[in-house]
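I would like you to sit down with the pair of lines that follows and say whether tokens and residues agree.
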Amino acid sequence: MTGTDPVRVRGADGVGADPAQAKVTAVADRLESYLYRYDAERDHRAPFAYVYLRLTRTLAAALAEGQPAFNDPDWVADLSVALAERYFSAMDGLESCLATARPHRPAHPGDLPHSVPQPWRDVYAASSTPRSYVLEDVLFSMMAHMSYDLPLALLDLRGRQHGGSRIADFHRMNDVLAASIDAVQSGLATRYWRALAGLDHLFTQQDELLSNYGIRVVRGMAWYNADRLKDPLGSADAQGSIERSTAGLIAQIRAPGDPKLRVALRVARWLIPARRTWPPPGTAV
């Protein structure tokens, strides 16, 4: 399966609907191929791909086990697919740009094509700077994916809302993903940087986004913004908001408003090396 292939259900024979769990497993299979490529190339996109893969496998397992009992498992799976397609599209757009730009990688959002959504351009540029940390790579990507991709993916499924709201199932998804985040963060540290657990002070607690509480909050905001995007009177403001959110987080971490804190962070970046470990190519997750 190549990086540009659409998500396909393994073993689908075209007869009847594919099980929800199989759809999400197909997403995980494709994420795994991206992760292995990023690991082999020592690409800073690997840590988030790892987190995304782990969370997707968690959702697939929940669907397979029927715990929690989703009211509409097919909608849950379709949302996972729609969300993943937006991520894959952004990554493939970046890849097309990088293929022509190497060995000089773009270091500014304006150097990247507008076919790549603004939040993902912001993420790539921020992660391309010297002394970018693993935790930053994950936080920035998580913000782009949850605050920008997710509201738009929810809109992609707006035609599936007949028969009642899906907010109960969306909340159950929050429970599944949030409950697994501590184990995922531990695995992230083991795979890419064992010092990850000690960075709370450097990032002034902004890593709470990658927590049980943080996952719930950012996904809840995505649902809210999806409703704003549906409103003709508020859609323009909502679109601008979700496009700016990731850059706002990056600025808050990289250049906080407090001058003393800003200086302290600069000093800390010089003192704490952005040391990473890379698993051997193809190391299983």
User: Anything to note?
Assistant: Residues 189 and 195 are 7 Å apart (CA to CA). The radius of gyration is 19 Å.
